[in-house]
Amino acid sequence: MGRITCALLAAIVGIAAFRKFDFETLRFENTGLGILYVAAFVFFVVVAVRSKGDAEKSEK
């Protein structure tokens, strides 16, 4: 996956997680779905950061 694609997917998942999070109780409306949102968000951020490093290496 490309860096921009992963960044875009991370933003979409992050916004969805933000909407489902209840700030009064500091919990997700659905715990299982909240865990899935957080795991997907972290995955896409890590892949985006790693692909940035790969792109820099390939340019040299």
Characterise the protein shown here.
Helix content is 78%, strand content 7%. The protein is mainly alpha-helical and 60 residues long. The protein has one domain. It has a two-stranded antiparallel sheet. The longest helix is centred in the last third of the chain and has 29 residues. The protein starts with a helix and ends with a helix.
A few lines on this structure:
The protein has one domain. It contains two helices and two strands, in the order αββα. The chain has helices at residues 3-20, 31-59, and strands at residues 21-22, 27-28.
List descriptors.
two-stranded antiparallel sheet; elongated; 78% helix; 2 strands; mainly alpha; 60 residues; 2 helices
Mean pLDDT: 87
Question: Sheet with the most strands?
Answer: 2 strands, antiparallel
- Portion of residues in helices? over 70%
Low-pLDDT parts are none
What is the helix tally?
2
- Please report the total strand number as a whole number: 2
Strand order of the largest sheet: 1-2
Tell me the number of structural domains: 1
Indicate the radius of gyration in whole angstroms: 14 Å
H/E element sequence:
HEEH
Classification by helices and strands? mainly alpha
**Separation, N- and C-terminal Cα atoms:** 20 Å
Strand content: 5-15%
| Structural shape | elongated
Could you outline the blueprint of secondary structure elements for this entry?
Blueprint: H1 3-20, E1 21-22, E2 27-28, H2 31-59
Antiparallel strand pairs: 1-2
